[in-house]
Structure formats: C-alpha cells, structure tokens
Specification:
GO molecular function: oxidoreductase activity
CATH topology: Rossmann fold
Shape: globular
Keywords: NADP, Oxidoreductase
CATH class: Alpha Beta
Structural class: alpha/beta
Oligomer: single chain
Family: Belongs to the short-chain dehydrogenases/reductases (SDR) family.
Protein name: SDR family NAD(P)-dependent oxidoreductase
Order of helices and strands: EHEEHEHEHEHEHHH
Largest sheet: 7 strands, parallel
CATH architecture: 3-Layer(aba) Sandwich
Strand order of the largest sheet: 3-2-1-4-5-6-7
Distance between the termini: 29 Å
CATH superfamily: NAD(P)-binding Rossmann-like Domain
Helix content: 40-55%
Number of domains: 1
Number of strands: 7
C-alpha cells in the first residue's frame, strides 16, 4: 500500500519516530495525516490534524474514532520504555497498558474504517520483542506481548482485508533510548523504512541496520513457518 493519497493516523506523533512518521507521510503525498498526541501541537501543513489522544484513555480513543470518518493506515507508534528490574508490578502494568492494550484498543476502535478501506495496521514494536533487554524488562515483556497480538490480529483480520504489520526496530536516536550507549539509526530513516515495508507488503519490517540483520533468516525461519501453520488452523 502506497501512502500517496491515503489517510494515515499515527499515535505518539509529537516526537521521535512518531514525528518522523508524520513528516514522511506528508513527503509521500498523504491526503490526510491524523497525529495523535497527549499534548497540544500545531503543524504548518494543512493536511495534518492533531487529535488529543492518550492510548490508555478509552474515552479519548472513542472520540478520535468518531472524528475520523475514513482511514487507510493506523500506525500504533505510541510507547513507553522505562528502566526497571521487575520489582514493581505497577511498572509492568503501566507498560502493558501503553504498549499492549493501547494498540489493541486503537485497532478495535478504528476497525470499521479499516475494513471499509481494506487498510492496514502498523504496530511499531522492537527487537526486544524477540530477545528481552534485561535493563528494560517490563518494556521487553510488553513488546513481546504486542508482537503476539500483532500475529493474532494478522490472522483474524485477513479475511476482512486488513493487513497487519509488525515493525521490529533496533536502537533509534530518540528520547526513549538516549541513555543507551550503542549506535542508533535516525528516526527519519526508520520512518522511511517503515512506509517502504508497508508498500512492499512486508509482514515484519526491520527498519534499521541492526534489525535488518535478522530479516534474511526470518521470512523462511521456523518461527515464521509456525505462525503460518497456526494461522491456517482458522480455516480448518
């Protein structure tokens, strides 16, 4: 799916990858970009409409769904990452609320529009969904759960014509990863690679140099094959 002349909604759109996704969608000729944020923002491009949107607030999600009449691409980008050691259950619950239940609530609320357009859901996850980062275990757990959610959504929504993509990002130069002392990709390059992956129909998108190392072995790997086999059970 090309972004040109499409309507796109991006959560967590005020900074980092989210802000880069807004600019990339505009560069690619999007007809309308809905930018979901928890803070008041403005944009000089008249194609951008900001929505007051906290993905943990069901009332705000429902209000946004009523305000958006049509939608081609939903990008669940809003996320939370905090250092912890799993000693505080509240930290884990907060990560799950944002990184798992937030994307689930968004997809559920906007499903009628996406079915109508035969559109796409793009869940921005992390390579930590595949192998936990022990310095941010609550984040890793929530992203692993969100990856499982993505695989389930993919199988369940395919009959309705909705495609579901998982973005497995590596280290990116954002505020979220500023204390991580490793080479990082720019948000702009990651945003471009995400939309390239959507256009190519890639179910898993590896948008940076580190994550891209996993791509060659993923598509034909045993985990991907097991996902396909499990999805096929729906039609038996």
């Amino acid at each position: 799916m090309s972004i040109e002349n499409r309507t796109v909604l991006i959560t967590g759109a005020n900074r980092g990858i989210g802000r880069a996704l807004v600019e990339e969608a505009l560069r690619r000729g999007a007809k309308r970009v809905y930018a979901g944020t928890r803070v008041v923002c403005t944009h000089p491009d008249e194609r951008v409409t900001y929505l007051s949107l906290d993905v943990t607030d069901q009332a705000q999600i429902e209000a946004a769904a009523k305000a958006v009449e049509s939608l081609d691409v939903l990008v669940n980008n809003a996320g939370l990452a905090a250092y912890d050691n799993l000693s505080d259950r509240a930290q884990l619950e907060q990560h799950l609320a944002v990184n798992l239940f937030g994307p689930h609530a968004m997809a559920s609320a906007f499903l009628p529009q996406l079915v109508e357009s035969r559109g796409a859901i793009v869940n921005v996850l992390s390579v930590a969904a595949l192998a936990s980062l022990p310095m941010i275990p609550a984040y890793s757990i929530s992203k692993a759960a969100a990856f499982s959610l993505t695989q389930s959504q993919r199988a369940l929504l395919a009959p309705q014509g909705v495609r579901v993509h998982a973005v497995l990002t590596g280290p990116t130069d954002t505020e979220m990863s500023r204390d991580l002392d490793v080479p990082k990709a720019s948000p702009e390059s990651v945003a471009a690679a995400i939309f390239d992956g959507v256009a190519a129909g890639d179910e898993e998108i590896f948008p940076d140099p580190l994550s891209a190392l996993l791509a060659p072995s993923w598509v034909g790997g045993s985990v991907k094959e097991l996902e396909r086999q499990n999805a096929a059970l729906l039609s038996t």
